[in-house]
């Protein structure tokens, strides 16, 4: 149950696009299309933004999108807004009814 | 909209025990798979445990296996986490989370557990 690997920080200017990567292994990200992404503002509970690699829950703007290639999943945020500044976590089902999170990425809007 | 409210956190000495509770407003609680996820101070999210709707199947992270027990009382719409043999590294905010078919769609606000002498 090793944590998925995310960059510690990313940044972008308002209106730009950024991508956060999430690298796992063939036993988790690479084997299952059950990758989800969570947004967490300081002092708040996480919020589901993407599930099953590419799907958005109701109410999440279409500026947020997900993808996967091999053992690496990605979250892209387009048209960056100040309110998007937060920590982002990926999560993958790892088989045997266990889940593994990434270490988190601090996203800063310049 | 489903709401989850955790309680039971506090300060406990190393080697001690604590039981967390999570009250759910879900009308379908007995069908909801539920998780506990924790977050140490300044650190990332870590999955702790999961239980099926009827309580028949439970799974744990290696770091808590044998020390923590997840359970539920569907008549009370309540999820529990019994934590025994607590260690300093168990210090964290503990979130109660509703499962959404391999994702986690509803989160409580969390309850803080501090393990220290």
In short:
The complex is a heterodimer of chains A (110) and B (117). Chain A is mainly β and 110 residues long.
The mean pLDDT of chain A is 96
Q: Give the uncertain stretches of chain A in residue-range form.
A: none
Q: What string, H for helix and E for strand, traces the elements of chain B in order? A: EEEEEEEEEEE
- Fraction of helical residues of chain A: under 10%
For the report, how would you describe the main beta sheet of chain A?
6 strands, mixed
The overall pLDDT average of chain B reads 97
Q: If helices are DSSP runs of H or I spanning 4 or more residues, what is the number of helices of chain B?
A: 0
Write the H/E string of chain A, N to C. Answer: EEEEEEEEE
Structural description of this entry:
The complex is a heterodimer of chains A (110) and B (117). Chain A has 110 residues and is mainly beta. Chain A is 0% helix and 44% strand. Chain A is built from no helices and nine strands. In chain A, strands 1, 3, 4, 7, 8 and 9 form a six-stranded mixed beta sheet that branches. Chain A has a three-stranded antiparallel beta sheet with strand order 2-6-5, with no helix packed on it. Chain A is globular and about 40 Å long. Chain A starts with 8 loop residues before the first strand and ends with a strand. The mean pLDDT of chain A is 96. Chain B has 117 residues and is mainly beta. Helix content of chain B is 0%, strand content 50%. Chain B contains no helices and eleven strands. In chain B, the strands form two sheets. In chain B, strands 2, 4, 5, 6, 9, 10 and 11 form a seven-stranded mixed beta sheet that branches.
Task: Label this structure with key terms.
heterodimer; A: 110 residues; mainly beta; 6-stranded mixed β-sheet; 3-stranded antiparallel β-sheet; B: 117 residues; 7-stranded mixed β-sheet; globular
């Amino acid at each position: 149950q090793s944590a998925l690997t995310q960059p510690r920080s990313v940044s972008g200017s308002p209106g730009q696009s950024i991508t956060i990567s999430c690298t796992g292994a063939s036993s988790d990200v690479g084997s299952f299309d059950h990758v989800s992404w969570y947004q967490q503002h300081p002092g708040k509970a996480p919020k589901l933004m993407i599930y099953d690699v590419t799907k958005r829950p109701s109410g999440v703007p279409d500026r947020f999108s997900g993808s996967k290639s091999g053992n690496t999943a990605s979250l892209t945020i387009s048209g960056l807004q100040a309110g998007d500044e937060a920590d982002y976590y990926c999560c993958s089902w790892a088989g045997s009814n266990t889940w593994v999170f990434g270490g988190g990425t601090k996203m800063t809007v310049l | 909209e489903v709401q989850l409210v955790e309680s039971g956190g506090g300060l406990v000495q190393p080697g001690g025990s604590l039981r967390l509770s999570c009250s759910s407003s879900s009308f379908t609680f007995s069908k909801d798979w539920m998780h506990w996820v924790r977050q140490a101070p300044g650190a990332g999210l870590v999955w702790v445990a999961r239980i099926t709707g009827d309580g028949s199947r439970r799974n744990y992270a290696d770091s808590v296996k044998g020390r923590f027990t997840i359970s539920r009382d569907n008549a009370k719409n309540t999820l529990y986490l019994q934590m025994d043999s607590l260690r300093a590294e168990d210090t964290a905010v503990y979130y109660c989370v509703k499962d959404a078919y391999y994702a986690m769609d509803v989160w409580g606000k969390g309850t803080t557990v501090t393990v220290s002498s």
